[in-house]
Every structure is written in structure tokens, then in C-alpha cells.
Fold:
Amino acid sequence: MADHGEDERACKKVDSGMTRVFTLLGKRWTGLIVSVLMQRAVHFAELRRAIPGISERMLSDRLAELAAAGLLVREVDSGPPLRVAYRLTESGLALEPALKELGRWAEQHLPEGGACPERFRP
Structure:
């Protein structure tokens, strides 16, 4: 006799697509990097200035992860001086509607600075 509880638990597992998305985009800084790159190609130093608090090492690691996932490309300008710019691929740019929707959701449902939403205040 089959264990129907086990079948039910298997059906309730997290969707594999959501798992892949949040494995990549759920890492600290990754969403902010993609958000900055939505606007235009950006050099490494500009990207670091646009995201206060991110270290060079962390930025480099996140950029490598996004490149490996096919969401951005690294372009070298031989200069002088030698400069590296990053831009989103078509796959990266295809995130724009989802990110905009998440931003709208945050404006409505996530209070700034950790304060309680107005509907919960006395």
C-alpha cells in the first residue's frame, strides 16, 4: 500500500525553477548588481560606487556568478587605461519586468528602515 502522505509531501516541494532563481538571485548584492546593470553597461569602479558597502572581492565573485549563469558579459576596453565593463545579456535584461514588479511589491508591503507598516501602528 502506498504512503499517500509521502506522495503529498513530494508534490509540495519547492518548484525547481524557483529554487534555481533564488539560488542565484537570492544571494546578497546580486539583485542590486542586476538592477544597476539594467540601466546601462557599467565599469567595475562605477558599479562598486553604485552599491555602497560591497567589497571588491564580493562584487567580483557576484559578477563571475552572473556571467557563468549567462546573465551578463564582461567587455574589456584595452584603453589606455585598461577598463572592464559589464552589461546584461538578453537573458539578464529579461529579468526587468520581474524586478520592477518586486520593487513595486516592496514599496507596498515592506516598510523602510524596518518600521512597522502604518496599518499596524497605534
In short: The beta strands are 42-43, 72-77, 83-88.
